Structure formats: structure tokens, C-alpha cells
Amino acid sequence: MNTALHTAEILLPREGLDLSRWAVVACDQFTAQPEYWAKAEAIVGDAPSALRLTLPEIWLGEADARIPAIRAAMARYLEAGDLAPAVRDGFVLTERVTAAGSRPGLLVALDLEAYDFAPGAASLIRATEGTVLERVPPRARIRRGAPLELPHVMMLIDDPAASVIEPLMARRDALRPLYDFELMLGGGHLRGWAVEGADARAVFDAVDALCAASDGLLYAVGDGNHSLAAAKQCWTELRDTLPPEARERHPARFALVELVNLNCPALAFEPIHRALFHVDAPALIAEYRSFLAAQGADEGEGDDLVAFDGTHEWRFASARHPLRLLQTFLDGYLARHPEAGIDYIHGEDALRALVAPGAGALAFMPRAFGKSELFPYIRRWGVLPRKTFSMGEANEKRYYLEARRIVEP
User: Fold this and answer.
1) Whole-model pTM?
2) Which residues contact 181 (CB under 8 A, 6 or more apart)?
3) 247 — phi, psi (to 5°)?
4) Which of 66, 156, 225, 238 could form a disulfide with 220 if both were Cys (CB 3.0 to 4.6 A apart)?
């Protein structure tokens, strides 16, 4: 069965390097907190580190100036042997322990030919949230021509029977250990094991069975969709220059991702709230009620969506998760009111601190998106609106550690 799953040669830092200084959090985190990245710089110093091989989005505006240094560091680390094959043909089992608990994962290669981020796509691999097309080209510039990829994509599988990753965790003591260390800046503890031979073949069997029951949706991108979209764009550009036989085996056709079981207890979905600024809150609420009525979606009062301006509170019920209608309305409202602004906020306390009485601000706080809703929702409705949910806190996102060559030798 074609499940888009592939083994890979996976590179790790050579023995003797300080992995706590090597591994850094996903580039799309702490984008408004330069102090976080200053601390990371201080920790890394002049040691070999993934910080030199990736571009934190806080510096995305400096991409053209920074990309040559990233390319040079990749070449230098490869030439010096700072990155070397740790798994020749297999997967990596990971265990990340944070305040949320123990989260197992499986680092695999997936075929980008089976991924489509377009709305309404029916591919095996799909985006969970809308892809902002203008965010793809800067990431594609970083990947295009690079010799290596370092993955931060977390790919969800809906595996209630715990048949793919969890059996490997149960026999992890029989697997070859790869790393065991503390991540920097409160990232928790990370361990990894090689999955090869018969253990890798068992993964293929389990994924085959899961695919047969998947109704066409086997993998849903949890984190890193824009980076995966950039990988897809780069592969599409390259594919069209290759003869047919070369397209089947070229390493850029595949992308490393970490599979995570949606049903893992340590995987938390946190809601992302909306804060509007420079608005007349009662007038905006009146417009929203009119919009809902025109859509035939005014369900009365409930707890699916709460809005407040520091003085008044409004409540809305919804037959399904309210965010698609809300985001559609807000996009139109902001287009009509260029004086207004919007921000996306994690955490109710932070949201309420922003929306003080008389501040001309209005908050929308949707209910949390339940994990059990995700795959059925995507199958029925397609991708979610952008900024629907966050998988855990920022320091619980994937850290860059492993690498894979994406150019032919």
C-alpha cells in the first residue's frame, strides 16, 4: 500500500558535541521575543549548533543577508564531520518529556508527492490550517539549494489503538540509543533511539493498517505547515527539471517529519484568541450578529465564543466550532476598517490584560478545539482557519536536532 512513508539516512551531531547547545527550538516560535533568542545565542556561543543552520523567523526580514552564512555553516559542519549518519536506513523514535508529560514521536521521511496544502485537497497528507501563500517564498529561499534539511514539522496521525509509535516505546530498551539530554531554555528532556530492520518493517505494517481505515486522510500537519509547503514548492520546481527516473529517488522529493499520535495525553491543544484594537466594540458586535444572521448561523447565546471589551461581555453558540465564521467576518471587517488592528493571543490571562475598559479593544475567545474533532473536521470541511489552535506551549515545540541530505551526492 502506498502510504507515502519512507525510511531515511538520518544525520546527528558527532559524539562529543554538546547537544544542549546544538538543539534549538522551531524557527516560528518566540517571534516577538528577541530576549529568548539572545539567551539562545549566549548559550550556543561559538559551539556547533543548529542555530547556525536555521533561520528563526524573528530575523526573517534579514533572510537574504543570513542565508549565505547558513549555507556556509552547513558545508563546514559536513566537511568537519560535525554531522554524520546515525541511522543509515530507518527511523528515529523520540521521547520528549515536558511539563505536559511524556510525548513519543517517530522521525520519518514522507513523500511530498502525497502532500497538498490547497483548500479542499484530498491527499494523504494535508494541512490542518489555511496556508498563507505569501509566507511560503521566504522559507523556500532558505531551503532552495541547501544541502541539508533540519525538520521542525510535527505530523499528526489519528491512531486511537496506539499501533504505530507506542509499540516501539514499549520495547525501546531493545533499540539502539542515540541521544539523551536536556534541551535548552526550559524545553524539557529528549531521548532518541534508532528504529531499523524488523522494527522499521513493523512500522510499515502498522501504517498500512492505519491507512486502510483513514478514509483518505492519513497525516495532518500539526506544526510547520509553511515550512512543509516550502519543501513542496522547492521539490515541484526541481522535479520539472529532472528526467522521470530521477524523480523517483531524488532526496528532495521527501521531507523529514516527526509523527505524533493525536491521541497522546501529553499533546495539548490550546486555543488561540483574537484581540481587535481601535474598534467600537458594540458596533462591531452588532455587525457580527448581522453577519451570523445572514449566514443562517445565529444560534443564540452559549459558551462556544465569548467576546469582551473590559466592560461588557457577549456570548455566542455555534453548531460547530465557531472560528471559521468568525475569521471570515474579521477578515472582511479589517478590510473595511483599515484603522483597526488584530493580534493573535495565547492564554486568557494575557488576552484580558490587553483588553482594558475604555481601551478601544475587543477580544474574541473561542472554545478550545477538541483533538477528537480534528480529523473529522478536515475530512468534512477542509482546512481550519489560520491560528485555530496551538499544540502546547512555545517551548514544547520541536527542537532542531536531526538532519538529512536533500541534494544528490
Assistant:
1) 0.89
2) 19, 20, 23, 189, 190
3) -65, -30
4) 156
Confidence (pLDDT) at 354:
84
Total Cβ atoms within 10 A of residue 292: 18
Counting every residue, how long is the chain?
409
Among residues 289, 26, 293, 34, the alpha carbon closest in space to that of 153 is found at 26
Instruction: Tell me the CB-side half-sphere exposure of residue 5, using CA atoms within 13 A.
Output: 26
CB 246 within 8 A of CB 152: no
The cell numbers describing 5, all together, are 512513508
**Pairwise CA distance, residues 90 & 114, whole Å:** 20
* Residue 189 to residue 111: CA distance in whole angstroms: 29
Task: Describe the chain by its helix, strand, coil percentages, rounded to 5.
Answer: 35, 30, 35
Cα 297 to Cα 112, 257, 273, 320, 374: the distances in Å are: 37, 38, 20, 10, 21
CA separation for the pair 109, 199 (Å, rounded): 16
What is the reported pLDDT for 133? 64
User: Position of cell 526573517?
Assistant: 60
State how far the Cα of 32 lies from the Cα of 36, in Å rounded to an integer: 9
DSSP H or E segment with residue 189? strand 189-195
The contacts of residue 358 (CB under 8 Å, 6+ apart) are: 310, 311
Other beta carbons less than 10 A from residue 79's beta carbon? 9
Place of cell 479542499: 120
Residue 165, helix vs strand vs coil: coil
The candidate with the shortest Cα–Cα distance to 4, out of 241, 178, 259, is 259
What is the CA 217 to chain-centroid distance, rounded?
17
Residue ranges in the chain modelled with pLDDT below 50: none
Q: Write out the three cell numbers for 21.
A: 547547545
Nearest of 77, 86, 93 to residue 148 by alpha carbon: 77
Q: What are the tens digits of pLDDT across the range 153-178?
A: 999 999 999 999 999 999 999 999 99
How many other CB atoms are found less than 10 A from the CB of residue 53? 22
Ramachandran bin of 311, using left for φ above 0, alpha for ψ from -120 to 50, beta for the remaining angles? alpha
CB-side neighbour CA atoms (13 Å) of 204:
14
Structure-block grid coordinates of residue 299? 444560534
Through-space distance between the first and last CA atoms of the chain, rounded to whole angstroms: 29
- In this structure, are strands 176-182 and 189-195 parallel, antiparallel, or unpaired? antiparallel
Write the pLDDT tens digit of every residue in 273-293.
Answer: 999 999 999 999 999 999 999
Phi, psi of 407 (to 5 degrees): -120, 155
Give the domains, in start order, of the chain with CATH numbers.
Answer: 5-268+392-405 (no CATH), 271-370 (3.30.1760.10)
